[in-house]
Every structure is written in C-alpha cells, then in structure tokens.
What we know:
alpha/beta, 5-stranded mixed beta sheet, 6 helices, 28% helix, globular
Amino acid sequence: xxxxxxxxxxxxxxxxxxxxxxxxxxxxxxxxxxxxxxxxxxxxxxxxxxxxxxxxxxxxxxxxxxxxxxxxxxxxxxxxxxxxxxxxxxxxxxxxxxxxxxxxxxxxxxxxxxxxxxxxxxxxxxxxxxxxxxxxxxxxxxxxxxxxxxxxxxxxxxxxxxxxxxxxxxxxx
Length: 173
C-alpha cells in the first residue's frame, strides 16, 4: 500500500444476531477518516497483550486528532473475532474478520505462517485512510513468509498516534 492508494473493494461476511450480513469496504471506510490495523491473529500474545489493548486505551486520543473510527482486522473468521472482542472487553475498537484473507492479500500483507501452524495470516501493519484513500501506511519491516519472529514497532498505536497528532484534521477547514 502506498500513500494515495484506494483500499480494495472487498465484501466481508459478518453476523448480526443469527443472520449473515455482508459489509463492504465502503461500509467501513467511506466518508470517514479511520485507522485500520492488521495483526497475525486473535488471542495471540502480542496482539492480545499490547496492540489491541493499546489501540482501545488510546481511542479517545485518536478521536482528538480527527479520527472517526479504529478498526482491527485479522485473517480469522467472524466467530473468532467476535469472541476475541468480548474477551478483550472492547468498547471502542471495532473488529473486522477477513476470514479468507481477501482484503489482506489485496493490500499485499498476506503471509504464510505454516511454520507456526497458522496457515495464511496478516503481516502486522497499521494505516490511516480518509474516505478509503491511504494517508499513511505503517507496515512492519521485512515482510516474509514463515518468520519465526513477530516484529512489532512501526505499527504500534503509540507510533500511529504520534503521526496522527502531527497530521490532525481538527480545526482544519
């Protein structure tokens, strides 16, 4: 993903009560300035102990910079992502299940994690998009398949918040 790129048009399968409901990229990103962060998997250590909780904790500070929504995406199914949302007691960050990895693949962040028994997963990243157009992209360095390590620095909520503070839309006409 590069600055100025439009996010891919993808349909996500979600559940509302006991019905499947399709939501599109447009439903999530149109006419909003949002943060999207992708991570390897729900219930995994770095994702559950640091990245997701810190985005949740810092949510009011993101809003103060002109962000309208914060989304967490993973290549997990809807049921796993919803259980993780409940487990993490999320009030602010919305989770998006990219069950087949379609969106993740189209933005170039799908990697193999077969060495860990995960199959295809997301490389860790964050981005800010305005009306579906990427303003800034924060991928972790050296994307590659079957890495033993799990880099976590560039896509941290603290790093993204620093950028948002320097590029706030509050007070801009």
